[in-house]
Amino acid sequence: xxxxxxxxxxxxxxxxxxxxxxxxxxxxxxxxxxxxxxxxxxxxxxxxxxxxxxxxxxxxxxxxxxxxxxxxxxxxxxxxxxxxxxxxxxxxxxxxxxxxxxxxxxxxxxxxxxxxxxxxxxxxxxxxxxxxxxxxxxxxxxxxxxxxxxxxxxxxxxxxxxxxxxxxxxxxxxxxxxxxxxxxxxxxxxxxxxxxxxxxxxxxxxxxxxxxxxxxxxxxxxxxxxxxxxxxxxx
Length: 235
Description:
Elements: H1 8-21, E1 24-25, E2 28-29, H2 33-62, H3 65-84, H4 91-105, H5 114-132, H6 138-156, E3 165-171, H7 182-193, E4 196-206, E5 211-219
Antiparallel strand pairs: 1-2, 3-5, 4-5
Helix pairs in contact: 2-3, 2-5, 2-6, 3-5, 5-6
């Protein structure tokens, strides 16, 4: 009597698995409805959360379209990489490795402000959370994203952190930089700049040209980030 290796139970389980995948080509499903809708749902949710943070918190102050473009594409790229490659045992290390490589290649050639770098890290963090949390309940993922938005809103608002703008000024009245003449220097700067200056710091002093660099702190009329404030001379 010939013994057969055929197991009806295993065959039925395999057939059900193949049927659940729908059309299969080279052992890979051509279309999986569940995976498709899960991708679309999580991608839309991640995109909305990142857009809210970028549009209403970052862009409202900085008005930098170049970083707006960068943040949104970073969000899309990191999310899709992690979502589609989550079966590969790289996961978080893979995402952070990509960011590190990109930073060494591009961002080391250009000075990026700490605010932009912080937002970039936040966008990457949100995309990592949404792309890898397949086994986490939807409620927990939603709460995590709400916390991202809430903390960003609190820190960007003036409720806890009062925004103070700064400028670098080349000041020629070097005789007024003496500590005992601080009030006179402050009044002179307020009159000449028209700014509501609250504090002045004396930096580099050039006695050959009778000038000194001052860093002034003032209350801005508009709650915006001025990217030219730190420029001290023409390139």
